[in-house]
Amino acid sequence: MIQTTQELTEFLAGCKGDFKALDTEADSLHCYHEKLCLLQFSDGERHALIDPLAIDDLSPLKDMINESELWMHGADYDIVLMRRDLDSIPPVVWDTQIAARLLGVRKFGYGNLVEHYLGVELEKASQKADWSKRPLTEKMAEYAINDVLYLKPMVDMLLAQLKEKGRYEWFVESCAQARTKVLDRPQSKEDPWRIQGAGRLNPNGLLYLRALWYWRDGEASEWNKPPFMVCGNKQLMAWVADIQSSKPIELPKHFRATRRKSFYSAIEEAQQVPENLWPQRVTAAKRRVKDEAFDEACAALAAKRDQVAEELDIDSSLIISKAAIEAISANEVTAAEVLMKWQCELLGI
Q1: Distances (CA, A) of 104 to 86, 100, 161, 312
Q2: Separation between Cα atoms, residue 69 and residue 255, nearest integer Å
Q3: What is the DSSP letter of 279?
């Protein structure tokens, strides 16, 4: 466990070779203000837990990340955390999940791959642990380090198989695209209160949904717990339906008096909003014309995809998604705009 800047500097200076693997743990299941709580690092021979909550100056780690090609598994969330909490982004990210899927592995969780390739069954008990707690229990530390301990031998096997099957270039292109997609994603969501089901509500329903969403967010922030621990999205939608149909609202019995008071205050404040300031439905995108030619084009492309997928023994969605099939068939985009080079080649586009 590395807990000082000096220990961090000395450890990273001792790294040999090009292989570097990283994983992260956060406390999103336990706190409203989610933070990066732990990093697991391996150079293939030495493995360490790095404690960002204890280290005053993380610049040696940031420098390493900004200059290194890193191996990760299911890297999307890790990249988001590194960008947000460390302001650091690896120039290249190699993802073992992508590699396994390109080889036709159907169960591609990290534990699944370790068992599949190395015959080791990992303990899952700490999967939902609170990683902000210190000291880490022995079980938590073992769980954490296991996330990088097995990467090097697994990577060697994955790379050998990718090259043997002629799919290494697919892997390179797929990893680059995956990293770009994460970085292109907005860091904050516009109108985060527009949860699943909001599209069916009229402006009055949207008004109450927005009010209750921000009520829940405020309660969660004050409590420093994730919003779902106050109530779930389905419950918010159910309350909106009750309000609009003038049904009595039943709040959970465990809600304390102040939370009940703030709940009803949020509704009362929403009722004072003038109609011209109510949120509006999001304008739907122009409906796609689905004629015989469109159906035939979709069917032909899907048939080609399924044939290639069967021959390669990989998931057909890796070759082209249903959304991409429809967009290309409707002439809304070109294949080159939505597909990688290797995907276009496989489909003959």
Answers
A1: 34, 7, 11, 8
A2: 49
A3: -
Helix 110-118 and helix 151-164: axis angle, to 10°? 70
pTM of structure: 0.90
CA distance 297 to 288: 14
Classified as helix, coil or strand, 191 is coil
Could you confirm whether domain 198-277 is CATH 1.10.150? yes
Exposed / middle / buried, residue 149 (Cβ in 10 Å: 0-12, 13-18, 19+): middle
Contacts of 102 (CB under 8 A, 6+ apart): 162, 167, 170, 171, 174, 314, 318
The tokens for 166 are 């002629």
CATH number of 5-184: 3.30.420.10
pLDDT string in tens for the chain (349-residue length) = 999 999 999 999 999 889 999 999 999 999 999 999 999 999 999 999 999 999 999 999 999 999 999 999 999 999 999 999 999 999 999 999 999 999 999 999 999 999 999 999 998 888 889 999 999 999 999 999 999 999 999 999 999 999 999 999 999 999 999 999 999 988 888 899 999 999 999 999 999 999 999 999 999 999 999 999 999 999 999 999 999 999 999 999 999 999 999 999 999 999 999 999 999 998 866 777 788 999 999 999 999 999 999 999 999 999 999 999 999 999 999 999 999 999 999 999 9
Question: H helices within the chain, ranges in order?
Answer: 5-13, 59-67, 76-81, 96-102, 110-118, 138-149, 151-164, 168-184, 203-223, 233-244, 257-271, 292-312, 322-329, 335-338, 341-347
Q: Which tokens in the block code for residue 16? A: 């040999």
The three-state secondary structure class of 189 is: coil
